[in-house]
Amino acid sequence: MTTTTSPPCHTFVFKSVLGVDYHLDCYLPDQAALDKHERDSAPILIYWHGGGLCSGTRAWNDLVPAWLFVPALEAGIAVLSLEYTLLGPHSAHCIVDNVRGAFEFVSHKLNDALPAGSVRLDPARIAVSGSSAGGYIAYAAAAALPDRIKAVVSLYGAGGDLLTDWYLQEKTAPFLDGFPLLTDAAPFRAILDQSASSTPPTVSFSMPDPLHPRNLLLYYFLQTGSLLDTLSGKSGASAALRQCPRPDRARLVREHGPDVATVLPQLWVTARKFPPTILLHGTADTLVKLGESRSLAAQLEKAGVEVKLFEVEGGGHGFDAVGNWENSPAGRDKELTRRKDEALAAVLPWMLEKLK
Q1: Residue closest to 241 by CA, chosen among 218, 269, 263
Q2: What are the percentages of helix, strand and coil residues in the chain, rounded to 5?
């Protein structure tokens, strides 16, 4: 098995909404891997893909952390890649429902659904992981189901701090890698203004066309400072918060009620138990700022949660995706490459320790 080719998988439907099926791909370790590590059953690594919560797929492709998946399988860990409700017109409350539905399926139905003779999975030993927007879902899962998760692995995850000006302030000049401002809101409102109760959810959207409105939806949220409106399903939440001084925003969120507060993982850290967490984030990330992981790490540490943060110097957004590091300025620096590789190599041993 190599990191650039997808191994065989079993695909299952774990939830259905308005006629739309939610799938998970289950990659199983072989029995020899379990025997080598003296396991009777396989721990589980659940993964959610990136895409700004607006696009992306569960597929094993050049964007997934195969550098983690392949050695995890070789260490006797099953890897599950899940679909989830993409934003627009649906909110992040649907995503939390997806998480709960997935855990119910994995805990009570997945072993029976696997072909006869398959290795058995151990739903009492689950780690969750996500890249970029998938990190937000991993945080949401850890906050909603802390007793069922042994570890969190965040790869430049969003959601560490969604109350910054980056998410709340309207932008009047190009703000992301020179990309021009959007001038027509109509294609985005056509997605967002549909009825969430009667519109079938979008659970998968590939990204070949970077100019498709769904692939630009996160950019629209950032430009208009309106991400929190769609996350929470509460129109006007972003506008109210952007008028508030940064130190007072968390308090104001709580005054808005649970619709807003429950979609902000950063507010759950001090209120509930949170699993041990490891975060990797590039210092040159211009989409999900390093400050998000720094902020979450500080909160977890203050709350007494075990946390490790690896800041990958020179790493941009998706620095671990196939070809990204090699084609970046940091990729030409042997010392930075060595340190990046060292950070990646630290993840699996840490995770194995938590899944004992």
Answers
A1: 263
A2: 40, 15, 45
Q: What is the bridge-based pairing of β-strands 20-27 and 10-17? A: antiparallel
The mean pLDDT of the chain is 95
pLDDT of residue 256: 80
Edge-to-edge strand order for the sheet containing 42-48?
10-17, 20-27, 78-82, 42-48, 121-131, 151-155, 277-282, 307-312
Q: Token pair of 10, please?
A: 């079993």
Distance of CA 296 to the CA centre of its chain: 14
Full DSSP string of 116-134: TTPPPEEEEEEEEEEETHH
**What would the pLDDT profile of 100-137 be if each residue is shown by its tens digit?**
999 999 999 999 999 999 999 999 999 999 999 999 99
Structure tokens at 99: 């998480």
Alpha-helical (H) ranges within the chain are: 31-36, 66-74, 92-108, 110-113, 133-144, 165-168, 186-192, 217-224, 227-232, 237-242, 249-256, 258-261, 290-302, 334-354
Backbone dihedral angles phi then psi of residue 215, each to the nearest 5 degrees: -75, -15
CA neighbor of 159 nearest in space, from 176, 149, 144: 144
Tell me the HSE value of 109 on the side-chain side, using a 13 A CA sphere: 10
**What is d(CA 97, CA 84) in angstroms, rounded to the nearest whole number?**
9
Instruction: For tokens 């709350």, name the residue.
Output: 303
Q: How remote is the C-alpha of 208 from its chain's centroid?
A: 20
Q: Would you state the pLDDT for residue 200?
A: 98
Q: Token digits for 61?
A: 């492709």
